[in-house]
Specification:
Rossmann fold; alpha/beta; 7 helices
Length: 224
């Protein structure tokens, strides 16, 4: 797939394609109201459109990412609503039948990311965004809504599953794969090993897609 990508915007990689494949495997896409959280180039937005989504909303903290999403939709004749900000800003919108997210999840020495690293750096344990996303995503879903989150096993999928189930939704790993480290992980292999995130000499990571399913009255602390 050829994509327009503004400077500094995350280039779709193995995690992006894994998320898109999991999206295509869902049976409930036609006519669905879909949110692409942490949209980047909008590749998941495009996948949802191709699967027959009824409406599309993309949200990102990065203006260049939103521009990239808009352009990639525009050249394909796809209508998309853009929202600038953190995914929690979508709480003020009507709920969604499907929320897909490829959030930042790479452990980083710095507690706060800047510039292009906003797309991948997520604090010392890789959870600075994931923890908030797991708390927020159930509240973005309709009564029978579904969510998909992709992230690395380095960032503790079991913790994500536990947090999501603690919100009263069903959560399970539905896809995965092992890929070689990319440039970011290769550049901090020693630090990751010292912190216990990887084994010494490890040069591959496991990616997982977690599926979230909400049923009526299932979410603790539900929005009115």
């Amino acid at each position: 797939m050829r994509l327009i990508r503004a400077p500094g915007v995350y280039r779709p990689q193995a995690d992006s394609w894994l998320l898109c494949r999991a999206l295509r495997d869902l049976p409930r896409i036609p006519g669905a109201r879909v949110l692409d959280a942490c949209a980047g180039t909008g590749v998941a937005t495009l996948a949802a459109a191709a699967a027959g989504a009824g409406s599309l909303t993309a949200i990102d903290l990065s203006w260049p990412a939103l521009l990239s999403t808009w352009l990639n939709c525009r050249v394909r004749g796809i209508a998309v609503e853009l929202l600038h900000g953190d995914f929690s800003a979508a709480l003020r919108l009507p709920r969604f039948d499907l929320v897909v997210a490829n959030p930042p999840y790479v452990p980083a020495a710095a507690s706060r990311a800047r510039g292009p690293a906003l797309a991948w750096d997520a604090g010392p344990d890789g959870r600075s965004v994931l923890d908030r996303l797991c708390h927020t995503l159930p509240d973005l879903l309709t009564d029978r809504g579904c969510g998909l989150i992709v992230h690395s096993a380095i960032s503790d999928p079991d913790r994500s599953l536990c947090q999501l189930r603690g919100r009263g939704v069903a959560a399970q790993v539905v896809a995965g794969g092992t890929v070689p480290f990319g440039p970011v992980l290769r550049s901090r292999e020693r630090w990751l090993a010292e912190r216990g995130h990887i084994r010494p000499g490890q040069d591959e990571e496991e990616l997982v897609v977690i599926r979230i399913d909400r049923t009526e009255s299932s979410v603790v602390g539900d929005r009115q």
